Task: structure prediction
Amino acid sequence: MRVLAIETSCDETAAAVVEDGSRVLSSVVSSQTDIHSTFGGVVPEIASRAHLELLGPVVNEAMARAATGPEGLCAVAATVGPGLVGSLLVGVSAAKAYAWSWGLPFIGVNHMEGHLHAAFLEDPSLCLPTVVLLVSGGHTMLICMQAPGAPFDGDRAGSAVATSQVEYRLLGQTLDDAAGEAFDKVARFLGLGYPGGPAIEREARDGRPDAIAFPRGLATEGYDFSFSGLKTSVIRYMQANPGAPLPDVAASFQEAVVDVLVAKTKKAAAEVTAKAICIGGGVAANAALRERVGQLCDEYGYTAFIPSRAMCTDNAAMIGAAACYRLRLDGPSPLDTAVDPNLRLQFV
Ligand code: KG4
Ligand code: ZN
Result:
């Protein structure tokens, strides 16, 4: 089962050829970061125009690197949401056109399900239940991936289960800003540039994570997250201490985000008797978070699924993996499938 997948939900124009949901034959990502950095964030209209120019060459490159022609494919997939409506439309319209003209089925994929499947691409032996911390620019969610029908306590845990048999249970999510959004907003306020996550991470390298005691929002309550208070607290701190060393501010802010993410992941993993912990989404590229999740897994004996940085940030290979899963489960999507900027994951 060989799928051409297209991802254009935000500011990466990406295409990949994925075989059987697990082998990446090619993955091409063209980032628009340079175009948007002048504006301090993604400009939706500019993003969709750039996708329009970049997508054809990116798809050609992905097909060439995979040494595949249309006759070697069994379907064409694209992210149908969530994301920027204009950007989504470019990828989805192109994917439908390729599918129709090559006589292949089309598969509409949920971007967040793509992030969930990214780990399978690098290690197909995922064992259930797995607690997944999904942290991107638009979302922050704690999800339990479990065998279908498994009770919440993970009774049917244990054996490695085929990826065609997973259910998602939402344990908690952010009540305000997503973790990546907090990184981006704080970086912008500190004048560190865009995208904020890597900028804060760079600045934090020379700072002390314990220099400033920023608040840990909702740290002890349930599985939901809140980051807007932390962002406000950084702003107030800088207003009161205009000369504060930026590396210390960046490191202390990053520590506050990572502390909360790791504490809730730890609590969730214990409660669902998880076998493994997996992280995904752009913020999962953060070295401090990766290290702390790795330590948590070592300490408590969970298998760690920490995808490579390239597989954490937006790419089309993860969309190809999720597409194979959806094709097996639900079959192809109709050609009149609409894009949905607010598409949600289906939880049990
Ligand atoms: O998953 P992604 O590439 O796109 C969305 O679906 O949102 O995530 C992008 C987000 C941005 O907010 C970016 O600042 C953040 O991920 N990010 C990071 C790092 N790299 C990207 N946050 C913290 N540390 C990083 N190294
Ligand atoms: Zn994403």
